[in-house]
Amino acid sequence: MAYRQTNKVMEKFQSKKKEILKAAREVFAENSYQGTSIKTIAQKAKIATGTFYLYFTNKDALITMIVEEMFHELLKCIKHERANFTDGFDKLQASMEACIKLFVKEKNMAKILLVQVPGVNNAFNAKLIDIENELIKLTKEDLDELKKQDRIPDEDTFVTALAFVGSFRQVIINWLREGKPEDLEAAFATLMKYNLRGMGKGDGS
Amino acid sequence: MAYRQTNKVMEKFQSKKKEILKAAREVFAENSYQGTSIKTIAQKAKIATGTFYLYFTNKDALITMIVEEMFHELLKCIKHERANFTDGFDKLQASMEACIKLFVKEKNMAKILLVQVPGVNNAFNAKLIDIENELIKLTKEDLDELKKQDRIPDEDTFVTALAFVGSFRQVIINWLREGKPEDLEAAFATLMKYNLRGMGKGDGS
DNA sequence: AGAAACAATGAATGCTAATTCACATTGTAC
DNA sequence: GTACAATGTGAATTAGCATTCATTGTTTCT
Questions:
Q1: Boundaries of every domain in chain B
Q2: In this structure, which topology does domain B59-199 adopt according to CATH?
Q3: Under an 8 A CB cutoff, do A159 and B191 touch?
Q4: For B23, which of A2, A178, B45, B186 could close a Cys bridge (C-beta 3.0–4.6 Å)?
């Protein structure tokens, strides 16, 4: 009789899948998408290359799953931090602080999402753009709220949101690539001040 | 007797090389580095694939030359605009305005430099990082000058420079990828205001 | 015009890496 | 413990390109 759907078997399957994902994250963080081979991932996960295909249909499915996982981790983290605040400025600050803290903690994640960006035309890149757009959307919503409250000047909040996200992105990328600024969390303070002034925060609080 | 070094021949050689470069720029703007084949470039340049190798030693040499050309165009453009100003804020503004105007005019250039970024480990990427670092360095110099003049707060100018460049980069990338903001030059005004406030420009001028 | 130098061609070569597959090993049920 | 289901294996297959090369076409020089 078939024994496929039993708990024990399923769990084992899922646990091995997770191991492969973990190994893959490490490899992708050090090499670009094109630059990492299934063979290398398989070696790191201590399986044969063929075994990989029992768990994932192909390389694209793997990277898509990794990026989606990271997307969820990131959004969960941001939403969790934001929940503590109601003020627009505070929410913006909480969002970026959540990002930075997560990236410091999970450097591989940051490397994959921000540095190992391959060219267009694959699932990986499309997902990455989704993540970025979601972050920009969230930022814009906060800015629109602040604008409605007359707490920031009447300017294009979309452009402002891009500027906000872009400034963080650049600092994080430089930190990943060149190790500068050394202390990302310290840089965060400067960066936050820069952006709050940039938005035109009056002296409310 | 050899006829290699005569003017006519050399000129023809150089002119064909330029044609190939032009075709290559167009192809690279639409596909990533890995995603474009020499065959496609050759077709666009109306030559056989083998002919390509009479003009360039390999694919890497081609992209390196393209990126270097663009680097020079960009720096020339920036330096030219900056020459009209002595004030730090004005110089910063001139730099970014020069960038934006060039990218609007030469959209393919922007696409190659900003969107078709392949993963690491090739000459293309290294050059791109050089360009970015050069821009950041220029920005930091202006900021240091302003700081010495006590015209901006005493904060980490490196982080500020990253934020400045990053905000522009993000807006330009979004414009290239999604076509938003529609009018990049209009967005420039918002962006510049954002960044001048961000730097902490007092009300000098 | 004829010979030598050079340029152009595109099919052949070679390499790399994803994916498959025939076979081997392990796990489950009875 | 045996039969069958499922997993694991890694060598073989395949496909896509970059690069080369033998051949053909073109230009220059005398």
A1: 1-56, 59-199
A2: Tetracycline Repressor; domain 2 (1.10.357)
A3: yes
A4: B45
Question: Which pTM was predicted?
Answer: 0.93
Task: For residue range B27-64, list pLDDT tens digits in order.
Answer: 999 998 889 999 999 999 999 999 999 999 999 999 99
CB–CB of B129 and A171 under 8 A?
Answer: no
**Which residue has the closest alpha carbon to C17 C1'?**
A37
Which class in CATH covers the domain with range B1-56? Answer: mainly alpha
Which window residues (53-82, chain B) lie with Cβ within 7 Å of strand C?
Answer: 53-54
Whether B194 sits inside 8 A of A191 (CB atoms) is no
Q: What would the DSSP string read from start to end of chain B?
A: ---TT-HHHHHHHHHHHHHHHHHHHHHHHHS-TTT--HHHHHHHTTS-HHHHHHH-SSHHHHHHHHHHHHHHHHHHHHHHHHTT--SHHHHHHHHHHHHHHHHHH-HHHHIIIII----SSSHHHHHHHHHHHHHHHHHHHHHHHHHHTT-S-S--HHHHHHHHHHHHHHHHHHHHHH--SS-HHHHHHHHHHHHHHHHT--S--
**Protein residue closest to C30, using CA and C1':** A1
Of B35, B117, B155, nearest to A117 by CB-CB distance is: B117
Q: What are the tens digits of pLDDT across the range A91-147?
A: 999 999 999 999 999 999 999 999 886 565 677 788 888 889 999 999 999 999 999
